[in-house]
Design goal:
It catalyses: UMP + ATP = UDP + ADP. This protein has 289 residues and is of the alpha/beta class. It has two domains: 67 residues; 192 residues, Rossmann fold, CATH 3.40.50.300. Helix content is 60%, strand content 9%. The protein contains twelve helices and five strands. It has a five-stranded parallel β-sheet with strand order 2-3-1-4-5, with helices on both faces. Helix 2 packs antiparallel against helix 3, helix 6 crosses helix 8 and helix 8 runs parallel beside helix 9. The longest helix is centred in the N-terminal third of the chain and has 26 residues. Bound molecules: adenosine-5'-triphosphate (ATP) and ligand LLZGTKA7.
Length: 289
Amino acid sequence: MLSPVLRSTFRCSINASRLKASNSCALLSKRLYSSNGSSGPSSSHRGKILALLGALAVGSTIASISYQKNGPVEYVEKDSSSQSQQTSSQGPAFSPKDVSVIFVLGGPGAGKGTQCANLVRDHQFVHLSAGDLLRAEQNREGSKYGDMIRHHIKEGKIVPQEVTVALLKQAIRENYDLGKKRFLVDGFPRKMDQALTFEEQIVPSKFTLFFDCPEKVMLKRLVERGKTSGRSDDNVESIKKRFATFIETSMPVVNYFESQDKVVTVSCDHTVEQVYDQVKAAVKDKIGN
Ligand SMILES: Nc1ncnc2c1ncn2[C@@H]1O[C@H](COP(=O)(O)OP(=O)(O)OP(=O)(O)O)[C@@H](O)[C@H]1O
Ligand SMILES: O=c1ccn([C@@H]2O[C@H](COP(=O)(O)O)[C@@H](O)[C@H]2O)c(=O)[nH]1
């Protein structure tokens, strides 16, 4: 169950701005009333004060709402007119009966992206790599998250969930509106808060495909990939930080889904074809085709 604090992560800031607006009105009212030293103003003076406060309250609310349009979630989300999405403000945006999400987790360089590409080719999944979405947002002209994302990626740290969840939600909506209903969410959730928020606000996952791979194999693959990938984190220093984050922060997510019997582990120290045989068997078992 999601804690009240986490549950309100996305919704509290607008309330906070509104609270600030009404608090400042209350404060102003208090000051106006005490400024003439009497117990209260005359009735015509009081009428003017009330009119002024009314105008201030409307102005502040408009200002706080438009300010929020630039907040983390609204900034990266676009409105969707899809009729098929669930409308409840509390529950997930999509029904798991309608939308299938497979989380794809595993250490850096385990081969997640390679196998997702195979599934896209053969099984019409949409591949959403959280890392790719973050890199695209990082490079998007005008993004106010660019520098923050760049820093987190280089350091192997997890970008705050608000940004990543919103990017995924937007990508799922856009694909859903095109009729796509099967998603591989690759390299996500990397942290418990992301797992809880995604399943509560977007859609519960079908299962997690966990790519199990020895560190030395992943290191070798990433150093090799780094010769051509151009990625700022495919170097030994960043790779070591990513390994540490994976063990400390992401393995608890795998263990959490394991405790719900929702993990299929794939052994990755084999050829691409051998790994793919395991991946196909897992998808067939859990989803049917
Ligand atoms: N089974 C395999 N055997 C040998 N090399 C592989 C295998 N699977 C993937 N590779 C290679 O290893 C590198 C890492 O693979 P991939 O990009 O799929 O990993 P990843 O888990 O998605 O990594 P990251 O999380 O860092 O994005 C790539 O260069 C890929 O070609
Ligand atoms: O949910 C996520 C996913 C990724 N990140 C950051 O991106 C890099 C690269 O991710 P890849 O999956 O290897 O492409 C990762 O090390 C994190 O820094 C994230 O913050 N949150």
